[in-house]
Amino acid sequence: MLTKRIIPCLDIKDGRTVKGVNFVQLRDAGDPVELAQRYANEGADELVFLDISASEERRKTLAKLVKEVARAIDIPFTVGGGISSVEDVDILLQHGADKVSVNSAAVRQPDLINALSQKFGSQCVVCAVDAKQIAGQWKVHLVGGKVPTEIDLMDWVQEVAQRGAGELLFTSMDHDGTKNGFANRALAEVADLINIPIIASGGAGTINHFIDAFALGKADAALAASVFHYKEIEIKSLKAALLDRQIPVRL
Fold first, then answer.
1. Distance between CA atoms of 56 and 240, rounded to whole angstroms?
2. What would the CATH number be for the domain defined by 5-244?
3. Beta-sheet pairing, 16-21 with 24-30
4. How far apart are CA 107 and CA 85, in angstroms?
5. With 0-12 CB in 10 A as exposed, 13-18 as middle and 19+ as buried, what is 128?
6. Exposure b/e, 32-67, CB count within 10 A at least 16 = b
7. Where are the domains of the chain?
8. Does residue 22 carry a pLDDT above 50?
9. Among positive and negative, which fits the CA dihedral 21, 25, 28, 31?
10. How far apart, in whole angstroms, are the C-alpha atoms of residue 55 and residue 166?
11. Phi/psi class of residue 185: alpha, beta or left (left: φ > 0; alpha: ψ in -120 to 50)?
12. Could you give the residue numbers annotated as active site?
């Protein structure tokens, strides 16, 4: 059985790591290079870096920070935020990213997923999806969750997989930052629809929440931010607890 992955996430705004609740009320969480190095040393399996205020004019600034983080760690490193072209990805990979995460641009221009997969390989392409329940239906949202769409989550994840994404990062906006647990029912439904790895995101607050994401949500990896940033959960303790529940992880 493949090992389950634990992935800290660095949400970056103006060169600093930040964290909020339901995508708002942001507060400073530290220096991204120092945090990245700490997580690599503590046993994180991968690292995700999301520039939540990305724009075209900031691409060079982002690439410089990506390079600094990449030099500080020895684990797989995914970068997202404002990526809208093959050229954007080329720059980030040259600066040390192992994978890229596309979100809003992929919804607006679905062919981007195909182009990135064909150019760099599907293993390099993570499609991030932010969704929220509207009248009982999961709907895709864009621009850090600020812009709702009529796109059904289950339809979109299937299209993403068909277009060549190698991995799906699913964030429940309803759960993000609440520390009340992941959206396990939706995760399990997604897992039954597609055959690419799924990263659960949004809602981690306790070790049991991670256990449930794997056991009930059928996730392949679980991503969290504040519980790791503020040392509410230690990665080594989390992995020990997962092993105790017969959930395979890399030590």
1. 42
2. 3.20.20.70
3. antiparallel
4. 13
5. buried
6. bbebbbbbbebbbbbbbbbbbbbeeebbeebbebbe
7. 5-244
8. no
9. positive
10. 25
11. alpha
12. 11, 130
Q: Which amino acid is at 226?
A: S
Average pLDDT of the segment spanning 47-69? 77
Q: What are phi and psi of 156, to 5 degrees?
A: -70, -40
DSSP class of 104: H
Which sign does the torsion angle of CA 176, 177, 183, 184 carry?
positive
R_g over Cα of the chain: 16
- 22, with CB counted inside 10 A (0-12, 13-18, 19+), is middle
- Model pLDDT, residue 23: 46
Q: What's the residue count for the chain?
A: 251
Cβ-proximal residues to 198 (8 Å cutoff; 6+ apart), any chain: 167, 168, 170, 187, 190, 191, 218, 219, 220, 221
Q: For residues 122 and 114, what is the distance between their CA atoms, to the nearest angstrom?
A: 9
**What mean pLDDT is predicted for residues 92-114?**
96
Q: What is the pLDDT of residue 171?
A: 94
CB atoms within 10 A of CB 215: 17
pLDDT in tens, 59-72: 666 888 999 999 99
Q: Which helix (H) or strand (E) holds 21?
A: strand 16-21
Entry pTM = 0.93
**Alpha-carbon distances of 57 from 17, 53, 89, rounded to whole Å:** 20, 11, 15
For residue 178, the model assigns a pLDDT of 80
DSSP calls for 208-248: HHHHHHHHTS--SEEEESHHHHTTSS-HHHHHHHHHHTT--
Give the mean pLDDT of the chain: 91
